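Async update (no meeting this week)

Hi team, since we skipped the sync, here's where things stand on the single-chain job. The sequence we agreed to prioritize is pasted below, unchanged from the tracker. I ran it this morning and attached the output directly underneath so nobody has to dig for it. Comments welcome in thread, and please keep replies under the output.
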Amino acid sequence: MAGSKTGSDSSPATEAVTDDSAAGGRTPEANADGPSETARHRVLGAVERRSLPALAVASVALLVVMFYYPVATVFVDAVLVEGRATFQVFWAILTDPFYFGELARLLAGENPLAVAKTVLSPERRLGIVGFTAYQAALSTLVSVVVGIPLAYLLARYEFPGRQTIRSLTILPFVLPSIMVAVGFFATFGANGTLNAALGTVGLGPLDLLPSLEAIVVAHAFYNAPLVARITTAAWESVDASAVETARSLGASPFRAFRDVVWPQVYPAVLMSAALTFVFTFGTFPIVLALGGFELATVEVFVYQLIRDLNYAEGAALALVELAISLSLLYAYLRYEAAHTVQSGGARPQERRPLWPPSRSLRDLLPRVGLAAYAVVALVLFAAPIASMVYASVSGPSGLTLDHYRFLVERQTTGASFQVRPWPAVRNSLLFGVAALAVALPMGVVVSVLTTRDYRGRKLVDTVAMAPLSVSGIIVGLGLLRGLVFGVEIGGWRIAVGGALAIVAAHAVAGYPFVVRIVAPGLESLDRRLVESARALGAPRARALLDIELPLVWPAVVAGAAFAFALSVGEFSATAVLASGTGQYTMPIAIERFIGRRLGPATAMGVVLLVVTSVSFLLIDRLGGDRVGL
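Output:
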């Protein structure tokens, strides 16, 4: 019979059905227990059958409360001024040269010829929005230039440590941006390791902060690995037989690359470049730390407007930024859908050994180039972290623990209004655990919803992934104006505390990554296992718990690690919600210290690095054996 178990022949699906039959009162043995027991089993069976739809409804409700309602509140703040609907605030921003530069003059109705003359002159103004796009374009260019050689190295060569380097390309997703900013301060600041190294060889110090160059390099630290990760996957999927055919017909290596390899790789390059531009267009912590208000982007000005309690203008400017980002992303996705080259069934090219070295010129030149690239990558990726650690234990007279002693003294003797280390660490961990408790179930449920075949699946996927496209500043502003300030319902004013709002913001930021990691695993499962279990009577929720989730458990654990690490390092929304409260976290403490003393900021950065890394590894060791996006 289907419900029996005979030795090792029983499958997970059969075991699930056997357990379910016993729990659901479907067998005579179960019915023999009496009417009350049978009724209890029927109730349990009904609960199991309805649990997944109930979880789906609960996840949608949480998404509405934590994300869509707050974002809608930002829209209302932008168009409803003093109880009157108006687009005056939007129009004032669009026609203000401070924000839109020379384009604002055109929108204001000035003579196009006069505006064109100014655009071509040295006196032209980009405006805040124009400067934001300019630094995003430079950051994208540098990220692509640095990322593509890494992708080529990983895709075309075999060498010891290759898989480790490929795995390390995921680190920027979990390293807090404010910590990276501290690392760049420690490297390129006036008293940083770069100037110290230049001083040892008799060269004068360089004044690199604040500067646009530092912002661009810091963005490349984050986004070049993203470019490499996406492009490597495309490069590895290039059909080797097509390349071999081109070479056998007389094509030179360059011609084969241009006509065969590049058409299959460039869509991935464009995708990574588009994502990089969107991410750097909405940048906040790195620009705030490395550029300040001298090189402010749209996000920095939104933050300043909120601090000045100018919510209407801040909301309108945030929505202008959101409209630009979403338009750029949508335009590329349409292009990518029409031009992506399908490579189904392709035979990947064999990787050439990078070691031991060959004496042929054909192999020597790439190795020289890769060695030069390794030096650049070492300076770009390893130096900021190493400099931060070194700066935390060094002072004018050499190695010292004074910066860590400062943190201890601030904890024990600091005034109540000052940022103290232990509350920052405690809050970060508590917020991380609470956000994980919300983000992980939501992410798993949404993963199930987005991997099933039904009408409206694409709409559900788009609605669920919307938080990836909305900046933390907008989410934080919406939560502040909507839930923290409170909403009146039936004469009652309902409000939540700042801590709950921070947890909601962190959960909104983390759960899409759970979906991005878990959903591919669910989609690749053998559907026959689930179909067999369902055909034999297992409820949908039971099949999910007993069959699907155990098979994708490593992905679930990896998603949990990402959600927790992202919460610990989240800065943008927390900076809005924690302003004026005692709910500060480690990233907030670092930002406060940077403005006063770099030493304590680097020490706090090391604490954040240790907490993030240990937490990520501990969660991953609970059951994950892979991490990927």
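Quick observations from my side:
The radius of gyration is 28 Å.
The beta strands are 80-81, 84-85, 157-158, 352-353, 394-395, 398-399, 487-489, 492-494.
Reply here if anything looks off.
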